[in-house]
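Notes, Module 5: Reading structure tokens.

Key idea: the token line is not a picture. It is a compressed description, and you learn to read it the same way you learned to read a sequence, by spotting repeated patterns. We will look at two proteins. The first is printed below with its tokens.
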Amino acid sequence: MKKDMTVPCDDGLLNIRVGAIIMKNGKILMVENKNRPEFLYSVGGRIKFGETAEEAVIREVFEETGIKMDVDRLGFVHENYFYGDAATNPGKLIYEISFFFYMKVPEDFEPVSQSFTEDDHVEFLHWITPDSPVKYYPEFFRTELAHPQSGVKHFVSDER
């Protein structure tokens, strides 16, 4: 089995991950888990060693929705420093590089949540509007997905 692209680096971790931008009828598909109900996050996960980012996002979308979906285009690259809160990385500084892809969403798309977090918590899917009052990650989706643009944008977040 291929390993997730999480690499120890000094006292912290380097994560390389992908996220899917799945939009339909002006809404974005996001994920919630009962371990962290205070915010939603994008469909996606870590790239496995040997995968390309596009292969990883197609796999992650299938794992989390039950639907095989093609990539439309890369939308965002996000560099993020934060402190881990999972049982596997409590308090560790994490530097995460994420590639967010717009997906080609079929007209008859009806997702079925069938995934779990790394801590084995069941995940649930939710459709929200970009201006939804709930907290969701990444935060730049709130402004950027309200009026999607062509091209790739780069964002940096730093919680150190």
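Here is the second protein, with the sequence above and the tokens below, as before.
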Amino acid sequence: MKRYLCVVQYIGKNYCGFQRQDNGISIQQKIEEALEVGLKQKIEIFASGRTDAGVNALAQTIHFDADISIPEKNIPFAINQFLPNDIKFLSAKVVNDNFNARFDVKKKTYVYHIYVSPVELPVKNELSYWLKKQPDLNKMKECAKIFEGEHNFKAFMSAGGQSKTFVRKIYSIKIKQKNDDISVEVTGNGFLYNMVRIIVGTLIEVGYGKKTVRDVQTALKSENRKNAGYLVPPYALFLKSVKY
């Protein structure tokens, strides 16, 4: 029996989230079904963390244990044929038996994609969030610095979050624009329920002058969700990388 670390990419719009749920088809379900067919054994997978309904992943990491003779480099080819077009294995390798895809995570990076246009653009709408007017990126970048470091992010968690502790560390928030496309890249040691999407919504409000940097400082200290910004939609959010 060996433990495998695999990198998986997916588009989340057709799923109820990564984790198995009773109310819909999950990404975990589709992967475990494909593994059972491809490897001819029932396998449970463990991910670096859950992604919510509609959220995408460029490089989600999972681990599982299996007794197979397939070379690790061939596992993606063996499994991908049984997966839908919106979920695919990118790589697989054997790791130490003590490795854990969730608990060994050191850093995660999410990126949120935005585009600015006077009208909606159908070719971008699937995976990018539409803003009708240009926000002030300098104000957004100034505000982003407030989030960096270790803070209590309870005000930036949606109702329904199950975390019992609310202190997380943000290593960096990078905001970039090329032509009409804006990206907000957030790297941290972990995130609360909807935390990245609320941070992005807050930054957008700052960019439009609806909130000030001081308002955001107050929101952090208040630990009250009502004081933070709005929740941007999930389809433009991507789990970019996981570091161990």
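Summary for the second protein:
- The first strand starts at residue 2 and ends at 10.
- Strands lie at 2-10, 46-47, 56-66, 87-95, 107-116, 129-131, 149-152, 167-178, 181-188, 237-243.
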